[in-house]
Amino acid sequence: LILNISQMMKGKKTFGWCSEGKESFEGIKRAIAKTPVLACPDFRKDFIIYCYATDNTLVDVLTQEDSNEHEIPIAFMSYILKDHELKYTMMETFFCS
């Protein structure tokens, strides 16, 4: 979702609104509207980390189990790889996550 908009804003060029950018923006708005509320971390409990890496993006989610043993999100992170990072192997990219 973020990649199209990030690429549109990359560098010092005139911002041009295109259909891909508009679709990405609408998708981001929908994702934000349905995203669960983040919980405060409880440092007495274990944390669960989910890491995901693609060719150009890193995504991580930090969760904990609540009293009903349901996982609740503590934090989300996403990162678009820079040009030099795109040369990493998939394993190196995953370790960056």
What this model shows, in words?
With 97 residues, the protein is α+β, with helices and mostly antiparallel strands. The chain folds into two domains: 35 residues, no CATH class; 62 residues, Ubiquitin-like (UB roll) (Roll), CATH 3.10.20.370. The chain has three helices and three strands; from the N terminus they run H-H-E-E-E-H. The chain has a three-stranded antiparallel sheet with strand order 1-2-3, with helices on one face. Helix 1 crosses helix 2. It is flat and about 50 Å long. The model has no long low-confidence stretch (mean pLDDT 84). This is Reverse transcriptase/retrotransposon-derived protein RNase H-like domain-containing protein. It comes from Taxus chinensis.
Quick rundown:
The model has no long low-confidence stretch (mean pLDDT 84). With 97 residues, the chain is an alpha+beta fold.
Give a topology summary.
Blueprint: H1 2-9, H2 19-34, E1 48-53, E2 57-65, E3 71-80, H3 90-96
Helix pairs in contact: 1-2
Organism: Taxus chinensis
Domain Reverse transcriptase/retrotransposon-derived protein RNase H-like: 17-93
Protein name: Reverse transcriptase/retrotransposon-derived protein RNase H-like domain-containing protein
